[in-house]
Every structure is written in structure tokens, then in C-alpha cells.
Design a protein that fits this description.
Elements: E1 5-6, E2 40-45, E3 50-56, E4 61-66, E5 71-76, E6 81-87, E7 92-98, E8 103-108, E9 113-118, E10 123-129, E11 134-140, E12 145-150, E13 158-163, E14 168-174, E15 178-185, E16 190-196, E17 208-213, E18 218-224, E19 232-238, E20 243-250, E21 254-261, E22 267-273, E23 276-283, E24 288-294, E25 305-309, E26 314-319, E27 326-332, E28 337-342, E29 347-352, E30 368-372, E31 375-379, E32 383-391, E33 402-407, E34 415-417, E35 421-423, E36 429-436, E37 441-449, E38 452-461
Parallel strand pairs: 31-38
Antiparallel strand pairs: 1-2, 2-29, 3-4, 4-5, 5-6, 7-8, 8-9, 9-10, 11-12, 12-13, 13-14, 15-16, 16-17, 17-18, 19-20, 20-21, 21-22, 23-24, 24-25, 25-26, 27-28, 28-29, 30-32, 32-36, 33-35, 33-37, 34-36, 37-38
Length: 462
């Protein structure tokens, strides 16, 4: 059951927020501007209190943890209807997806286990048993590795590294702190572990970010993610810009997101908020960061969702009435649809994070070629559309330009293309359809335009 309604966007007024607290030695003044666009959001009524969520951009399905019924609900992103319920172990909590293997991983704190779901069949195919309860989870799709925080009573949590092919633990890293969250930079191959409460520290919240190289599974560096010494909340990364976002919240300073440069882990900016932050999520396609918030005191009127521009590090939108029980957030980077779970109202809300379209210019030169998705797994007889976009270095779309597509010789047994060439439209994009034949195997497609070349790997399975 869907009921679209227009969000009320409260204008976040210009203000000066002078912060003076223990361990804080800086003053930050931020301008909050509001864009005029008012996107429409849709309610997806569920009949249960939704928990964490994830999206498979390959089939446009949304997966919602249902703690009440010990299951995961599958929602068709095209119709916003629940199409299946997958029974799991007791109390499904954290949820993540490998967008290459199309496997979904769901943690179960009570049962000390992880359910492995095939998102093409929408069924549980394996259960990974753990020695202690799992807390957080992060997925490295490129390396097919799953990173799981394992709880310890003395706050000396461990990080489990699981082989996604065999669903077996292949390494364990002792963190020495409580793991708050995990995020993966798929471009650099670096894993970021947000932790706090070092048992050996006199400071109540250390907010340490530990950096792990996924090629060696070794710790390569660490840095302080919350310079305000308030409790850690969440961490996310934009693999396109190599920026890390660390959220902290507390009564002294309320919500802050600190922005770090992934090249040297240096602090670039700090963004202040008018309420507690519960969750953050990056849309790498639009370079927007979403912060789910709640008021510090019940009588305060704060925005439910703030949207930050990753270029300026300023709040550009303030969504006022999205709900009071917002919990989880996921984004489809292909459709740019945002999904937020609302426990209080037993629903999801969804709205579009449409990118700003730069008007095309006839003289724009192709300097960047973007392909979504760039790695694909298909079953026999299945089909998927691939979007290829040409821009210059400033984001200007390159129009009326030919893009050629060539399948490698061996791959022609496994897949076919809708066309071997296409012209870009007014947004600089062209679409090719890939169809899986009846032969299993691997294929490689070369997309080229002028001097630009980029490959897409396709795997055909039963």
C-alpha cells in the first residue's frame, strides 16, 4: 500500500554555532543553505517494524530486516511492493550485500551466526556459525571478503574476515576496542573500522578509525575520527572522491560529521548539526551524504534528514517531517532512489536523490567514461541494462558521440549485446542491454569512445 506525500522542507536558517567543550580547541561556523527542489517521497507500508536495509542495484530489490518475524522482506524497487519474505535465524540485525556475487549477509546477535542469502533466488543458502555474537558488517565486493565485528565482554572486539566463496573465516584481527561500524572503499581496497572505548584509555570515547588493506588484511594506519571525544555513531566512504565521513553525537556538541581525506587521513572539514545523528549514508553518484537525525530533547523541532553536498561540505537540504522513528538507510546508486526505514510507523519511505543535470554543450570533450554496473553476474536467460556516460572533467555531458561495444571472442558463447554501438543522448549517456545465453562462463566487454576505453566483466551462472 503506497501513499505519496510531499515532504515539508523546513528552511535551515543561517546561524553561528560556537562550540566550546572539553578537548575541543576550535570554533566552527557553518552556513546552512537549502535548495529549492522539493522531491516527493512514497510510503511503503510493511506491517512490521523495519530494521536495517540494503539494496541490490543489479535487480533493484530492497532487503529489509524484520526483527519481529525473524525474516527479511524483499521489495521490488519498481513497484514498491513486497514480493517475498525470506525466513532467517532469530533476530536479523545488520545486513549487507556483495553486488558482484549478489549474496546478502545478515547478522544474528542472539544466535551468534550470519545468514547468507542468494538475492537472485531470494533464499538462504548457508549459515556461518561464530564463536561470539556479531555486531557490525562490511562487504568488499571486489575481493569477495566479508568483514564482521565480533563482540567481546571486555570491549576488546575482534574483526572476522570471511571468504565469500566458501563462507569460511580465514583471518581474525584483534581490535582492542568496541567496533562501532565498518565501511569499505571499493576503489582503494581499504577497510575502515570505527571503534571507541579503548579499555586502556582514560578518555571515555576514543573514536579511533583503523585502516586495513584488504589485499593483505593487515592494519596499515589509524586516526582519530571524532576529535570532539563524543561517542562514535557511524562511518561511510565515497569511493569516487576518496572522502571518509565519521559521525559522532553527544549532549555537549550534539551531532558532528568529520570529513577526512583518504589519501593522508587528514581532517578536511567538520559539519555541525542541530540534533543527534543516528545514521549516515553516502550516495557516490551524486556526492550527497545523508544524515538521519533525532532531537536531543523531545520538544525540539529538528530536521529528520539532512542532506550534505560532498563538494562544499555544507547542508543543502533539511527534510522536516520524514518520521520520528528513522532507523536504517540504503541507496540504489543506479536509480538514485533513497530508502529509509521508519520503525515507529512500520514503513519505508523512499524518494529520489536525482543528480543535478549540467546543461550539455556541443564543445564538451569526452574525458571520463563511467559504466554502471561495471561487474555483472547473470543467470542463464537473464538480461540487464548497462549505462555508459561520457563527460568532461567538469561533469559536462558529451552528447551525440558514438560508443562502441565489443565482446571478447570466448565471451560470445555466453552473452549477446543489444547493439555494437550507440550515440549518447542529452545527458551524455547511452544504454546497452546484455543478455545471458545458455552457456555458463565469463565474458568481457570493451566499451570505447574516442580514446577512452573501459571493460565490463560478466559472469554467467546456472
Amino acid at each position: 500500500m503506497r501513499s505519496p506525500e510531499v515532504l515539508n522542507f523546513s528552511i535551515c536558517c543561517l546561524y553561528e554555532y560556537i562550540m566550546l567543550a572539553l578537548f575541543v580547541s576550535f570554533v566552527s561556523i557553518y552556513c546552512h543553505s537549502t535548495v529549492t527542489a522539493q522531491p516527493v517521497f512514497t510510503n511503503i507500508e510493511l506491517g512490521f517494524k523495519p530494521g536495517n536495509i540494503c539494496v541490490n542495484p543489479n535487480n533493484n530489490n530492497i532487503y529489509v530486516a524484520d526483527i519481529e518475524n525473524n525474516s527479511v522482506a524483499v521489495i521490488d524497487g519498481g513497484t514498491n511492493e513486497v514480493i517475498k519474505t525470506i525466513e532467517t535465524s532469530d533476530i536479523p540485525e545488520k545486513i549487507g550485500i556483495n553486488t558482484i556475487s549478489n549474496r546478502i549477509y545478515v547478522t544474528h546477535f542472539i544466535n551468534k551466526s550470519i545468514s547468507v542469502i542468494d538475492s537472485l533466488e531470494n533464499s538462504v543458502i548457508d549459515i556461518v556459525k561464530l564463536e561470539n555474537a556479531p555486531s557490525e558488517i562490511g562487504i568488499n565486493s571486489e575481493m569477495n571478503l566479508i568483514y564482521v565485528g565480533q563482540v567481546s565482554n571486555d570491549l576488546n572486539d575482534t574483526l572476522l574476515i570471511i571468504d565469500g566463496e566458501k563462507n569460511k573465516i580465514i583471518d581474525i584481527i584483534k581490535m582492542g576496542m568496541r567496533i562501532v561500524n565498518i565501511t569499505v572503499n571499493t576503489s582503494s581496497g581499504l577497510i575502515y573500522i570505527l571503534s571507541d572505548s579503548d579499555p586502556n584509555s582514560e578518555i571515555p570515547f576514543d573514536n579511533i578509525v583503523t585502516v586495513i588493506d584488504s589485499s593483505t588484511n593487515k592494519i596499515v594506519s589509524s586516526f582519530v575520527g571524532g576529535i570532539t571525544r563524543e561517542p562514535s555513531v557511524d562511518i561511510d566512504v565515497n569511493p569516487e572522491t576518496n572522502r571518509i565521513y565519521v559521525a559522532t553525537s553527544g549532549f555537549a556538541i550534539r551531532g558532528i560529521i568529520n570529513v577526512f581525506d583518504g589519501d593522508d587521513n587528514g581532517n578536511i572539514a567538520s559539519i555541525n548539526f542541530d540534533g543527534f545523528i543516528d545514521n549516515i549514508k553516502v550516495n557516490p553518484t551524486t556526492n550527497h551524504i545523508f544524515a538521519l537525525k533525532r532531537p536531543v530533547f523531545s520538544d525540539e523541532n529538528v530536521c529528520s534528514i539532512d542532506i550534505i553536498d560532498g563538494h562544499s561540505n555544507e547542508i543543502i537540504n533539511c527534510i522536516g517531517n520524514a518520521g520520528h522513528g528513522l532507523f536504517g538507510i540504503a541507496i540504489n546508486p543506479v536509480t538514485n532512489n533513497v530508502y529509509v526505514s521508519d520503525k515507529t510507523a512500520a514503513r519505508l519511505i523512499t524518494f529520489s536523490d536525482a543528480p543535478i543535470i549540467i546543461p550539455p554543450k556541443e564543445d564538451c570533450q569526452a574525458e571520463i567514461i563511467e559504466i554502471v554496473p561495471d561487474r555483472i553476474t547473470l543467470r542463464k536467460g537473464a538480461e540487464i541494462d548497462v549505462n555508459i556516460k561520457l563527460t568532461d572533467n567538469n561533469g559536462c555531458p558529451v552528447i551525440n558521440t558514438g560508443i562502441n561495444a565489443i565482446i571478447n571472442l570466448r565471451g560470445r558463447r555466453s552473452i549477446t549485446l543489444s547493439s555494437s554501438n550507440a550515440l549518447t543522448g542529452t545527458d551524455g549517456s547511452a544504454t546497452f542491454s546484455i543478455s545471458a545465453n545458455n552457456n555458463q562462463g565469463n565474458a568481457r566487454i570493451l566499451f570505447s569512445a574516442n580514446k577512452l576505453r573501459k571493460y565490463v566483466n560478466v559472469k554467467i551462472i546456472k
